[in-house]
Design brief:
The complex is a heterodimer of chains A (625) and B (233). Chain A has 625 residues and is mainly α. Chain A contains 26 helices and 4 strands. In chain B, the strands form 2 sheets. Chain B has a 6-stranded mixed sheet with strand order 6-7-8-3-9-10, with helices on both faces. A 4-stranded antiparallel sheet of chain B has the order 2-1-4-5. Chain B has helices at residues 40-47, 70-75, 93-100, 113-119, 121-124, 136-148, 166-181, 193-199, 217-222, 224-230; strands spanning 2-11, 14-24, 29-33, 53-60, 63-64, 78-81, 154-158, 185-190, 202-207, 210-216. The chains are: A mainly alpha (625), B alpha/beta (233).
């Protein structure tokens, strides 16, 4: 009995940080409709800032003041992000905001590395709460009780704020209809900034308060992101009680899971999420998003144009040039170009669901790494040949996409994004934790191509043939009836349903097909490198594909190719600098704000400026007329 | 008090209002009449800048408000009652009123929930009910009451009689006349000429985004040709 009480209390105290971060994320989303992906970074900053403050402010008062001040400091940082990064793009499509907050993650990662260094920091114990309390014959750190108290305090405080104060009532009203609140004379800018401050401060306090338990390290941002997304998906986006209940549920499951099924802790969390989503797709306390009620979709996309003769010529020239590379280019260039082609295939497969289907996946690495691992495992355990492994990998990745997609296509918009990210984290954690099979952190080594393809030039031609075929298939699919149905579902799900298209089935099929192609890219990757590590499944890898698509321009079919070339070369160049994430992050933010149509958009802008049609709509009209 | 000079408004590429001009004087009740889709709601939304007019000028009390954001226009004493009502369904009636509350304003009645409950007795007993749990008629009362909490001098009412039972329509008409007595200036859009006759001094008829007719309500009553051309279905 005592054992259970202690376990329950431990779970409650673990829930504190999760609840604080998740409720902050929920509050910000409710009013601004922005899913702040950098919320995990705010949590991390809270821990680091509190650590530094505690070294300056001594004693009992100093400890608690540090936690509070860290919250305020992170709130101010959140405010800066809101004003500097998000305010200019509130009217842009969701993807832009998500990508911009990812830029913020990169910037904060490197700034934290710059300021606090790479080593894990061990948190100071809380003065007055260093000891343990005895419950029967069981021991519980007394600080756990503090954390439990803190989460109830925050829950009560938020309840009071939202139900008993004018600001809280305005926030709730704005969550439902912010334009109407504006028409009633309330300046929304203040509300936006206010909730950003509050939400960020909560994340900061969450990070600071767990310092005596978990310390501060540079992985905290991504580590909390998946559980937090699981919590808001289970609890229902925008619901504080939902965040509380779900944080509790997940933490208790973890605590008891460790006792009874130690291998299953990470998976358990996602099983619960899956079960909740089957019965309540909008979470326990959430409500369905009314499609189009927030009007953040931007103007409708122009139809795709048929390939012109000039385009065919340009493509043929590009293929001939790539084929000729080994005759004049050295090994380095061939390896680099193989990387570029693999990145392009990976990104084009994402663009297929994102650009054509409107499904913003934040977990595309799951199928890329999934395909790579499938190929590597087949070689490792059955000694299969490269050819067989490369054939097997896309099907394995497609199967993975089939499972993940079944859950995800039930949701749309930011929910879809969060869910895909969460599932990708499951795949990552399996690869990371299941050491006997996947080698865990050490990865799988020695996965080399067959003898005939083992030379640099031979493998380059293999990548060129397979990669370009994959890309061509993806592009071709855009012009098939299936591609039309996919685009129809993106532009209007209701109208598509009305003319007899099963939108969900089309989206699911597209998700599987994109997974298949992404898995193929993964297979090409693993034999190019000779090894595979869990890093290929990380959030950062999913974001690589997103950034490529984004760089190239979401609305352009050739965007991922342009983006893939630029991004791979840029990364190759930037990664020579120690703080390359900082540059990349700043660049992403700059592009989101200044070049909303991506590189292809810049090309169109230039053409418009120096003669010729200026934008896609006009071009489409000209084509039609 | 309110002047619209040759405004043009677009939804995306669709050109809705074409060089539309109109004016409302202090203390008047003016009706915008016209069929569905004529541009009545868009006119009111353009005034409130919920959709921006791309050209033309809107002045209110002598001040150019064409480019002001909606909340600034509301702060100048312009109250907007939307056609879709847009009640905050998750908030109670009292909380809905609180969202609309603004400081007292010189030259406008000073509203409190208690005073509004005298005007809309149905709302009082349900003050702690959720906005989403109310009937259409009650929601229409609440949306007017919520806007009045901002103590406006000028009221924009978008189709106040739409979809309501006849007895509620009478009540809305009574309310509008009461507000006129209190000195409010009102511009309302309406498809129902009968309702307009109950409340308005003057009317504009809008068709295809432009003013087609302008006169007093009595003149319009006498002019059967105009009524047949623009208002009969």
């Amino acid at each position: 009995m005592d054992f259970f009480i202690v376990q329950i209390l431990t779970g409650l105290s673990n829930a504190a940080a999760l609840f604080l971060v998740a409720s902050g994320l929920s509050i910000i989303f409710g009013v601004t409709r922005v899913v702040n992906f950098s919320h995990g970074s705010f949590y991390m900053l809270g821990a680091f800032i509190a650590y530094s403050l505690m070294t300056v402010l001594p004693g009992f008062i100093g400890f608690w003041a540090s936690i509070l001040l860290a919250g305020v400091a992170v709130g101010v940082i959140g405010l800066i992000v809101e004003l500097g990064v998000l305010r200019p793009i509130y009217k842009s499509p969701e993807l832009f905001q998500l990508v911009a907050t990812f830029g913020v993650i990169l910037v904060i990662q490197d700034l934290a590395l710059l300021i606090w260094g790479p080593d894990d920091l061990i948190g100071q114990r809380a003065p007055g709460f260093e000891g343990v309390v005895k419950i029967g014959d069981q021991l519980l750190p007394s600080y756990d009780l503090v954390l439990i108290f803190l989460s109830f305090l925050v829950l009560g405080g938020l309840w009071f704020l939202f139900n008993k104060t004018r600001v809280g009532i305005l926030v709730r009203a704005a969550t439902q209809d912010r334009e109407m609140v504006g028409a009633l004379g309330v300046n929304q800018s203040w509300l936006f900034s206010g909730v950003f401050f509050l939400g960020s401060a909560l994340a900061g306090i969450g990070g600071a308060a767990q310092l005596p338990k978990g310390g501060a390290d540079l992985l905290m941002d991504f580590n909390i992101l998946a559980p937090v997304f699981v919590v808001v998906v289970i609890g229902g986006m925008g619901s504080i009680p939902g965040a509380f209940v779900a944080a509790l549920l997940i933490s208790e499951l973890n605590v008891f899971g460790v006792q009874f099924l130690p291998q299953s802790t990470l998976v358990l969390m996602f099983v619960v999420m899956a079960v909740v989503l089957i019965f309540r797709p909008w979470g326990l306390f959430g409500r369905p998003e009314i499609v189009g009620s927030h009007g953040s979709q931007g103007p409708p996309e122009a139809p795709l144009r048929a390939f012109s003769g000039r385009l065919w010529l340009a493509l043929a020239a590009a293929v001939i040039a790539l084929t000729a590379v080994p005759f004049f280019g050295g090994t380095f260039l061939q390896v680099l170009l193989a990387d570029v082609i693999i990145a392009c295939l990976f990104a084009t497969s994402l663009h297929f669901i994102l650009g054509l289907g409107g499904l913003v996946s934040f977990g595309h690495a799951a199928t890329f790494g999934g395909g790579a691992y499938a190929a590597a495992l087949l070689v490792q355990f059955s000694g299969a040949s490269m050819e067989l492994a490369m054939l097997f990998a896309p099907f394995a990745a497609g199967l993975l996409a089939l499972v993940i997609g079944w859950f995800c296509v039930r949701l749309s918009g930011v929910y879809f994004a969060m869910l895909t990210l969460a599932f990708a984290q499951v795949v990552w954690s399996v690869a990371f934790q299941w050491g006997e099979v996947t080698g865990g952190d050490d990865g799988i080594l020695g996965i080399w191509p067959s003898a005939w393809a083992s030379g640099t030039t031979a493998y380059y031609y293999l990548v060129l043939t397979v990669g370009l075929s994959g890309i061509a298939t993806l592009l071709f699919m855009a012009y098939t009836p299936f591609g039309y149905a996919l685009r129809g579902g993106r532009d209007s799900a209701l109208r598509s349903e009305a003319i007899g298209i099963n939108v969900r089935l089309v989206q699911w099929s597209a998700f599987i097909f994109a997974g298949f192609m992404s898995g193929l890219a993964g297979a090409l990757f693993v034999f190019a490198k000779g090894s595979i590590f869990p890093t290929e499944l990380e959030i950062a890898r999913s974001f690589d594909a997103l950034i490529i698509v984004f760089l190239g321009g979401v609305q352009s079919l050739f965007g991922p190719l342009a983006g893939g070339v630029v991004f791979t070369l840029l990364q190759d160049w930037l990664s020579r600098f120690e703080y390359w994430r900082l540059f990349l992050g700043l660049m992403i933010i700059g592009i989101v704000i200044l070049l909303p149509n991506g590189l292809v958009g810049v090309g169109q802008w230039l053409r418009g400026r120096f003669g010729g049609p200026s934008n896609k709509l006009e071009e489409a009209q000209e084509e039609a007329g | 008090m309110l002047e619209l000079e040759r405004i043009n408004t677009f939804y995306g590429r669709a050109h809705i209002l074409h060089d539309l001009s109109l004016s409302v004087s202090d203390g008047e009740v003016v009706a915008l009449l016209g069929r569905n889709g004529a541009g009545k709601s868009t006119t009111l939304k353009s005034i409130m800048r919920l959709v921006g007019a791309q050209s033309g000028r809107i002045t209110y009390g002598g001040q150019d408000i064409t480019a002001l954001p909606a909340h600034r226009i509301a702060k100048l004493g312009m109250g907007y009652v939307p056609e879709e009502r847009r009640i905050f369904t998750d908030l109670t009636i009292l909380e809905n009123l609180e969202v609309g509350r603004q400081p007292p304003r010189q030259g406008a009645p000073d509203w409190t929930p208690e005073k509004l409950f005298e005007l809309f007795p149905n709302l009082e007993e349900r003050r702690n009910n959720l906005g989403g749990a109310m009937s259409g008629g009650e929601q229409q009362m609440l949306t007017i009451a919520r806007t009045l909490m901002g103590n406006p001098k000028f009221l924009l009412l978008d189709e106040p009689s739409e979809g309501l039972a006849p007895v509620i329509v009478e009540q809305v008409a009574f309310t509008i006349r009461e507000l006129k007595k209190l000195g409010l200036t009102i511009l309302l859009s309406e498809q129902n000429l009968h309702f307009a006759k109950l409340v308005a001094d003057r009317a504009y008829i809008i068709e295809r985004g432009a003013v087609q007719y302008d006169g007093t309500i009595e003149e319009l009553e006498r002019d059967e040709a105009v009524r047949n051309a623009y208002l009969s279905v």
